[in-house]
Write a structure and sequence with these properties.
The chain has 1331 residues and is α+β, with helices and mostly antiparallel strands. It is built from 40 helices and 46 strands. The strands form 11 sheets. Strands 10, 15, 17, 18, 20, 22, 23 and 26 form an 8-stranded mixed sheet that branches. Strands 11, 12, 14, 16, 19 and 21 form a 6-stranded antiparallel sheet that branches. A 5-stranded parallel sheet has the order 4-1-7-8-9, sandwiched between helices. Helix 21 runs antiparallel to helix 22 and helix 27 packs across helix 31 (971-979). The radius of gyration is 54 Å and the shape is elongated. Pfam families: Ig_TPPC8_1st, Ig_TPPC8_2nd, Ig_TPPC8_3rd, TRAPPC-Trs85. It comes from Drosophila lebanonensis. One of its GO terms (cellular component) is TRAPPIII protein complex.
Length: 1331
């Protein structure tokens, strides 16, 4: 038998094995029994040792000795017959089906890592089976028996008689005419050799020698051999390896062949993947009927064009019923039964017996076979020489002259020429075959070349093609291959294929050519020949050859990976049609490695769908699910109907996978897709149970955008922490409660037991059909402090008992929407709220839900949408490759701590510029432990004031009492003092707020004077008791107001000399209601209630108030004097020097100081003025807004030099505070607003505006620059100051206003010529001057 597998054969070894000498074997019954004790036949017994262990020598007719290296003898039972059509096809299919190779190798081509099988045993097995089941042909003799071994038993008492009977039987086979199977190489003179088997463990060696001597005396010494085997008993353990396992051929099962004929070859037909070709009984019966009618019969055998006779062909080819196939004679010596193949082999043999078998093969070849071959070569050579030229008739000679000698020309009948066995042409071919089989390739090439010419001349194209094929192989084995010899093989294939119509011989020649061309590295030619051999006749053969062609494209220079992918897809298609699902599945997966990520969407879909269907049929449901999931990927170009079909099959596959493998648990969903970067986790959730009409603190929302102002919050937090700790920590780390892609978690987030955790994730539907998600829940795993693990995964996998499920449900409470619908190619955000009841480490795994197509809600799939841990690059990473894990989904749950609930009274969304709104802050401790300290920080302290805030005198006011240049003041401490307030101050040792205690703090909010959007940030800090929790030292509550400031009142003021005689000073004030009624959609009436003066030297003269330009003053709803929108008025109030010196020495309390410096006068008060004034803090109180206005708020980024220069200088000035009220009406709703406008005057005839007027502001800037220039040349250091940076920026065109800078700190020079003359002007003097 031919053996080409499980060995690392090169091309020449393969060709030697295919065309090795064929030796027939006939065994007696007793000899078979001896061999069967080893579960082997005599043919099988010799197979592992059929190759000669040493070189043999062969002499040609000229006497030249040729060394034969690696000669292998092919032993074959004479009763062996090639299997019939259906059985042969089954053997070929099974040879491919049973061959597997899980080992792979990685090949990188064009930047693509291709995972390829390390070997293709299925191709090798098919090739071996294909060559084995071929019928011997008439045009070649390599498959004819050269000699015969007659195997006898030494225990046979009639051994000579048995030998004679066996000899007669063999001679009958050899002498039958016409020749039938088996066919003999030289039937008239066949070498018959006799082998006597001696069973050493049972027989007597002396008797065996006597029988052997009788055989030798009868048949000759050189033809007789004695082999001693079975030295061991059957049940004795031997130490020799099983040499025979890989040579045993299993007998194919015939009980299912008939079913394969009548039924589909593959269940793929049922799911419409592809229809497999099948043989129809009606066609076969029609063929039989046609033969009976005398019509020409086309050979149906797929591997051989010939049979022993037409009658045998009919009887064998068309008898395909169960009984006929089951009853076909299959020699067990050739095709081992299944139970025999699995049993151990050689159990009665020892090492000496194995050596006897090996020695017999060598001895037989040297003593008997090679001398016979030398003799046969001489006979054939003599016959060729004697008959050369004699056998050519006149007709033959004329035909050679006048008939075109090209394949395909004229009549294309390969049987047009019939040669006798004694013809010179066949003798030449036989001579070439002998030379080839025994390694004399030079003479073999000459013989084949001569035969080629003769056959070509006779137009015997089948013989011609065979001679061309062997001539090309001889040249290759000789090592003299060139382009012409390769063309020989090409011509042979074309002739077999197109002229002779012999597909099987063309296939064999292509397989031989493939090995030759691969050795020459002509891979493109190999691929071309293999592709040419594909046809509709055999899907299996086409698949195997296409796969080999695909691999050839990978080793060409340069590699052609696209052609490889294309042809491996074609191979997969042919495998699928042949019913080879495993190989089809493998080929398509290999092809996908090239097609993936190439933006060839439709090609990817085709491959993945085929892979999914093949995997489904192979019960590889996980692979099928992955492929179906890929078909639902984003960016697919399939239409809605097709994607809906994909989704349906995906759900079906997943459900079947879960049903078949429940141990897999929850499987991941392919739809919808989780946008991993969108996962947000909020560990601080403000309690929402605030009684009306209180408004809870806004805190951090899970949808908050932290990219804009998070740095401001961090700075406020830092000031709060340092103020509360009374010293600056070495490293400040801001608190983080919201985790997203911009703010990942390098450490595990902290959450408090019993407090909710919010999570948001965006899900996107990538297909063109809507899907519905039901029974939505969050999947989590909780590791308790004692290392016990609780997880709701077991609840959905139904693995735990009811008690365990109850414990899981009690551990964490989750709330979310139960059902959502995702429209086609839409995205939606899911919000979850978890409330942990235990402590430990919480891992959030994903979202569990039941997914279904909206059109078919009954077909649903329970699965999980998994969260993936993201990798982040830390800000301190020195290397670009250094990454950390984002721990936002691994939350540390700590025991309960105090929780502060902060709420506010209602603040209107739209307020007037300068309006003061009273706000009550409600603080409630929701925890079970007290809160030690509570602090409030803000980014704009000028706009708020608290009732119980500290009463320290601001530095800007203190500098008016004494020189601060020598004081040791700390910039950061002063900045913190301005922006941080301590709430609920208690004596030492008392908590600020006990458990479940509630307290209200009064606060006032003043809108800025500039209209537009206004944002105010408040950050509450509360410290936790030290022994309560080691993880949390303090907690924070955020609140932000975003208000719309509407314009209200424009006020301009100027200090003038109002009387030239008494040198009396006055303040001119002009007002205008600038409220835009149309733009705001509201009506407003403004009332000027009072004017206050803050001055060290002057008071307001209550008796000298002059109302001027009062044409715009009209009667309103709240009083007799109001300003309607767009109306204005003015007044002048005279000043008088303070009558008495200050009633204090040194630094008085702030309230005392404010009371002494303040004077007040009513202007045009409204009816409700007195009531409104009670709602705002008085100006003389330390928490009044006058204190805020007189305070210079330092910018956080101010330098120490600028800070020191600012506190060392004091600029005398007066401040006017205009108290006003307004009635704002919107539809039927109206409210009364109350506010203050402040104006600072530094010099005579300097105009100050509130809000700032650009024209007045430029003049004021010039005045201030002038006074700075003047004071810089004087020796009065108290008047030296630096122009604040924000001020120059405000007037250089940028219009920037820093909320931490003081905008009105200094006196400004006056460019008015009148003030420089120091004249006292009154009204009469002005009139005289004008006259």
């Amino acid at each position: 038998m031919i053996h080409l597998t499980e060995q690392n054969y090169n091309a020449r070894d393969i060709i030697r094995n295919i065309f090795s000498p064929l030796i027939g074997v006939v065994s007696s019954h007793m000899a078979d029994e001896i061999c069967h004790r080893n579960n082997l036949s005599f043919v099988d017994l010799l197979q592992p040792f059929a190759r000669l262990p040493s070189d043999a020598h062969f002499r040609d007719v000229s006497g030249t000795s040729v060394s034969i290296r690696g000669l292998r003898l092919n032993f074959c039972d004479v009763d062996w017959r090639p299997p019939q059509t259906v059985l042969a096809r089954k053997m070929l299919n099974e040879s491919v089906t049973n061959a597997h190779n899980e080992k792979t190798k990685i090949v990188t081509i064009a930047g693509i890592d291709l995972e390829l099988p390390s070997a293709e045993p299925w191709f090798e097995q098919w090739r071996e089976t294909f060559l084995t089941v071929q019928f011997p042909a008439e045009h070649e003799f390599t498959r004819h028996l050269l000699s015969c071994l007659l195997v006898l038993s030494s225990a046979d008492p009639q051994i000579v008689e048995t030998a004679h009977k066996m000899t007669q039987r063999v001679q009958q086979m050899q002498n039958i005419t016409p020749q039938k199977l088996p066919k003999w190489f030289h039937p008239t003179q066949v070498l018959n050799s006799y082998v006597v088997l001696h069973e050493a463990s049972h027989g007597d060696l002396s008797k065996a020698q006597q029988g052997f001597e009788l055989i030798k005396s009868t048949f000759g010494d050189n033809k007789c051999f004695l082999i001693s085997i079975n030295s061991l008993e059957a049940n004795t353990n031997n130490d020799i390896p099983d040499h025979w396992a890989r040579y045993i051929k299993r007998q194919p099962k015939a009980d299912t062949i008939a079913n394969e004929i009548s039924a589909p070859k593959s269940p793929q037909e049922a799911v419409s993947v592809i229809s497999m070709p099948s043989i129809q009984m009606s066609q076969l019966l029609e063929g039989a009927a046609a033969q009976e009618a005398g019509s020409d019969l086309t050979m149906l055998h797929p591997l051989s064009p010939m049979q022993e006779s037409a009658t045998e062909a009919i009887n064998s080819k068309f008898s395909i019923s169960n009984e006929s196939i089951a009853s076909q004679t299959i020699n067990p010596n050739v095709w081992a039964a299944d139970f025999d193949a699995d049993a151990p082999h050689g159990s009665c043999l020892n090492a000496h017996d194995v050596e006897n078998l090996r020695h017999f093969v060598q001895d037989y070849a040297v003593r008997a076979l090679i001398p016979y071959i030398e003799q046969l070569v001489g006979i054939l050579s003599e016959g060729v020489t004697n008959k050369k030229g004699v056998s050519k008739s006149l007709l033959s000679a004329t035909k050679r002259w006048f008939v075109t000698s090209k394949p395909g020309a004229g009549t294309n009948n390969q049987n047009a020429v019939i040669y006798t066995n004694e013809s010179a042409e066949l003798q030449t071919r036989k001579l070439g075959d002998l030379y080839f089989m025994f390694g004399h390739y030079n003479l073999a090439f000459q013989a084949y070349h001569q035969a080629k010419r003769d056959f070509n001349a006779d137009s015997a194209w089948q013989y011609y093609a065979g001679a061309l094929e062997m001539a090309a192989l001889s040249a290759f084995m000789l090592g003299t291959s060139h382009r012409k010899t390769y063309d020989y093989m090409e011509d042979a294939i074309v002739c077999y294929l197109t002229v002779c119509k012999l597909q099987q011989f063309a296939t064999r020649a292509t397989l031989m050519s493939m090995e030759c061309l691969k050795t020459a590295r002509q891979y493109s030619e190999v691929a071309k020949q293999l592709i040419r051999m594909t046809s509709e006749e055999s899907d299996l053969r086409s698949a195997l050859l296409l796969e080999q062609a695909a691999y050839c494209f990978l080793v060409t220079q340069p590699p052609m990976h696209r052609k490889y992918a294309f042809h491996i897809v074609l191979a997969g298609n042919r495998y699928s049609r042949a019913g080879q699902r495993k190989h089809a599945f493998r080929c398509y997966r290999q092809a996908y490695q090239v097609f993936q990520n190439r933006h060839w969407s439709l090609a990817e879909d085709h491959i993945q769908y085929t892979v999914a269907k093949q995997a489904y049929m192979l019960k590889k449901l996980e692979d099928a699910s992955r492929s179906f999931a890929h078909l639902l990927r984003p960016g697919s170009l399939q239409n809605a109907q097709q994607q809906s079909s994909f989704l349906k099959e995906y759900i079906q596959t997943q459900n079947e996978l879960v049903k078949r493998s429940p141990e897999l648990g929850l499987l991941p969903h392919a739809l919808p897709h989780v946008e991993q970067q969108s996962v947000r986790v909020l560990t601080l959730v403000q309690p929402s149970n605030v009684p009306a009409p209180q408004v809870p603190a806004t805190n951090i929302d899970i949808d908050s955008d932290l990219s804009t102002d998070e740095s401001i919050w961090y700075k406020i937090e830092e000031m709060l922490v340092i103020t509360a700790a009374s010293n600056k920590p070495f490293v400040f780390k801001p608190s983080q409660y919201l985790y997203n892609k911009e703010h990942p978690a390098t450490e595990c987030p902290l959450a408090v037991q019993g407090e909710p955790i919010e999570l948001a994730v965006t899900l996107s539907n990538s297909v063109r059909c809507s899907i519905t998600l039901n029974n939505i829940d969050l999947l989590w795993r909780l590791t308790l402090d004692n290392e016990d693990v609780l997880s709701n995964v077991s609840v959905y996998e139904q693995q735990d008992d009811s008690a365990s499920k109850a414990a899981v449900n009690a551990a964490i409470k989750t709330t979310c929407l139960d059902t959502i619908v995702l429209e086609e190619q839409a995205a939606k955000t899911l919000y979850f709220k978890l409330t942990p009841k235990l402590t430990g480490r919480l891992h959030i795994l994903g979202v569990v839900c039941r997914m279904a197509a909206s059109t078919e809600p009954n077909a649903s799939l329970l699965g999980v949408l998994q969260f993936e841990t993201q990798r982040i690059k830390p800000a301190t990473a020195k290397q670009s490759t250094q990454t950390l894990l984002d721990n936002r989904l691994s939350i540390k749950l700590v025991p309960q701590v105090p929780s502060l609930s902060v709420s506010f009274s209602v603040v209107p969304g739209e307020i007037l510029a300068g309006e003061i709104i009273p706000v009550s802050i409600t603080l409630r401790n929701l925890g079970i432990a007290p809160i030690d300290d509570i602090y409030l920080g803000t980014d704009d302290p000028r706009c708020i004031t608290l009732l119980d805030q500290q009463t320290d005198i601001p530095l800007s006011i203190l500098s008016s009492l004494r020189d601060l240049s020598n004081d040791n003041l700390v910039k950061d401490k002063e900045i913190r003092r301005q922006r941080v307030f301590r709430l609920l101050q208690r004596p030492a040792g008392q908590a600020a707020l006990n458990a479940q205690q509630c307290h209200t703090v009064s606060m006032w909010l003043q809108a800025p004077f500039t209209p537009g959007d206004f944002t105010l940030r408040l950050l509450f800090y509360y410290s936790l008791p030290a022994p309560l929790n080691a993880h949390l030292k303090y907690r924070l509550v955020r609140h932000i107001w975003k208000l719309k400031v509407q314009p209200c009142l424009q006020v301009n003021s100027t200090c003038v000399i109002s009387n030239s005689v008494t040198r009396e000073l006055g303040v001119d004030v002009s007002l205008k209601n600038v409220h835009d009624e149309q733009k705001a959609g509201k009506k407003s009436e403004v009332y000027i209630n009072a004017l206050s003066l803050y001055s060290t030297d002057y008071d307001l003269n209550e008796d000298k108030l002059y109302i001027m330009n009062n044409m715009g003053v009209t009667t309103g709803q709240a009083g007799a004097h109001c300003l309607k929108p767009a109306t204005s008025c003015g007044f002048q109030c005279r000043l008088q020097a303070k009558p008495t010196p200050p009633p204090f020495t040194g630094v008085p309390p702030l309230k005392t100081l404010l009371q002494w410096r303040l004077t007040r006068i009513n202007i045009l008060p409204a009816d409700h003025a007195q009531q409104l004034e009670q709602q705002i803090p008085p100006l003389y109180e330390p928490h009044g807004f006058l204190t805020n206005n007189e305070t210079v708020y330092y910018n956080i980024s101010i330098s120490s030099e600028e800070f020191n220069a600012g506190i060392a200088s004091y600029t005398p000035h007066i401040t006017l505070a205009l108290n006003w009220s307004a009635l704002v009406q919107s539809g039927t709703m109206q409210r009364i607003a109350n506010g203050l406008h402040f104006m600072k005057l530094h010099r005579l005839y300097e105009t100050s505006s509130c809000p700032k007027n650009d024209a007045v502001g430029e003049a004021e800037l010039r005045n201030r620059l002038s006074i700075m220039s003047e004071t810089s040349n004087t020796n009065d250091s108290s008047r030296e100051f630096a122009l604040p940076e924000f001020f120059s920026e405000r007037y250089d065109g940028n219009k920037n206003n820093d909320s931490f800078d003081d905008e009105e700190d200094y006196w400004a020079p006056n460019e008015c010529n009148v003030s420089k003359r120091c004249l006292i002007e009154d009204e009469s003097f002005m009139l005289a001057s004008k006259a």
